[in-house]
Amino acid sequence: MDGVLSQEEINALLNNPGGAEASSSSSSGGSASGTEVLTPEEIDAIGEIANISMGTAATTLFSLVNRKVEISTPVVSTATWDDVVQKYERPCVFIRIAYTVGLDGSNILVLKENDVKIITDLMMGGDGTNTSGELGELHLSAISEAMNQMMGSSATSLSSMLSKTIDISPPIADLIDLQESVDEGSIDEFLEGEFVKISFRMEIGDLVDSEIMQLYPVSFAKDMCKAIAKNMEMDADEAQIGVADTAKKAPEPAPAPANQQPAQPQTDMGMMNPQMMNPQMMNPQMMNPQMVNPMMYQQPVNVQPAQFSPFTGEFAAQFAKENIDLIMDVPLEVTVELGRTTKSISEILDFAPGTIIELNRIAGEPIDILVNGKYVAKGEVVVIEENFGVRITEIVK
Q: What is the pLDDT of residue 320?
């Protein structure tokens, strides 16, 4: 009867009280973990999606840093937070991008601290070597803007693959020290379990050659694979329908009349079929073009080198304007330098309140104005109410 245990079941429970519960929990746990494993087809699909998306993002990054950007073929695998910690031993930057339209989920890009400094310096017009100092809000703001442009173009590529509109939220960048105890759930909830890791080798000129990572929730990756497969099935069905419609519209050949006789060649020279005549007896103007040697009637051809407009002028100015517009809201540090001098350690140790330090600048001489350490202008000191100011007198070219 339902709900009543037999004597054998009662004896089994008495001999092993936790057996039934352990067996039940083990079965349910195995079933849950089985749903998180990616199939080879899903791994290939994710790799192809990442390859196309990050290829578009690399083109966008090139326009920001004005350096050649190369991204290798992606390597797709599943990982845990411990795997990421072991791979990146030093502080790195986590950039979280959430999808707001078209897809439900988020992904995280992981870049090394020094790579972020180089990209930021290139975006601000430097040569990529100004990487001294700590990573601050200026660097995080600039790399967030770069990732916003890159992942925006990646979302556009993804939209064409899925045939629907996809949009992202503004990226959020944080400096994470993986050597310390970090709560991965505070970065994103999906990092607490197993997730999809996509590794790339990124090269920017001869300045950057390192690995970056893109992290996905497993459920989000599976949803993308299903959407791609569904879109491919719809395209295949539309192609078959198009082939069927073309076959229906094709006209059938008209049957030849039964009493029609083949045309007989005329014996008169004026009515003779040109294909049956001796080419040497005919005027070349009367001959079948298929029987004429083309080398006998070649006409001279005027060959000139192609003329291309130079890559300067209005087009170059427009490209430069669009390039600078991408980072117009990135904050820069302006420094006014009154003068400099050089002192020995013993002289510096003698400093005390009231000590006067003579600078290498004459009174009334213009002072230097620097932006992020770069010398850009000259000016003169003025007083605005109770604050000092500087009036720009010359822009350095």
A: 54
Q: CB atoms < 10 A from the CB of 156, how many?
A: 15
Segment among 173-177, 187-191, 316-320 with least mean pLDDT: 316-320
**When comparing pLDDT for 86 and 323, which is higher?**
86
Token pair recorded at residue 162: 């899925």
| Pair 87, 207 in one domain | yes
252 found inside a domain: no
Residues 50 and 197 in one domain: yes
Q: Is residue 244 part of a domain?
A: no
Report the distance separating Cα 305 and Cα 355, nearest Å: 74
pLDDT-based confidence at residue 251 (cuts at 50, 70, 90): low
Q: How many domains does the chain have?
A: 2
Residue 28 has pLDDT above 50, yes or no: no
Give the residue from 212, 230, 248 where a domain finishes.
230
Instruction: Please report, for the domain that includes residue 389, its CATH number.
Output: 2.30.330.10
What pLDDT sits at residue 322?
60
CA 272 – CA 288 distance, rounded (Å): 12
The number of CA neighbours under 13 Å toward the Cβ of 57 is 23
Mean pLDDT across 132-148: 87
Residue 2 has pLDDT above 60, yes or no: no
The H or E element spanning position 381 is strand 374-384
Residue numbers of the domain that contains 380: 332-395
**Residue 324 belongs to a domain:** no
Model pLDDT, residue 392? 92
Give the residue from 184, 210, 230 where a domain finishes.
Answer: 230
What count of other Cβ atoms lies within 10 Å of the Cβ of residue 225?
A: 19
Asked if 45 and 228 count as a contact pair (C-beta separation under 8 A), the reply is yes
What separation in angstroms does the CA of 318 have from each of 313, 322, 327, 328, 386? 9, 6, 15, 15, 42
- The stretch 180-193 carries a mean pLDDT of 79
What's the pTM value of the predicted model, to 2 decimals?
0.52
CATH number at residue 141: 3.40.1550.10
Separation between Cα atoms, residue 351 and residue 394, nearest integer Å: 35
SS3 362: coil
Question: Could you please report the per-residue DSSP string of 341-356?
Answer: ----HHHHHT--TT--
**Is residue 208 situated within a structural domain?**
yes
pLDDT surpassing 60 at residue 90 = yes
Q: Are 215 and 108 in contact (CB under 8 A)?
A: yes
Torsion of CA 113, 118, 119, 121, to 10 degrees: 120
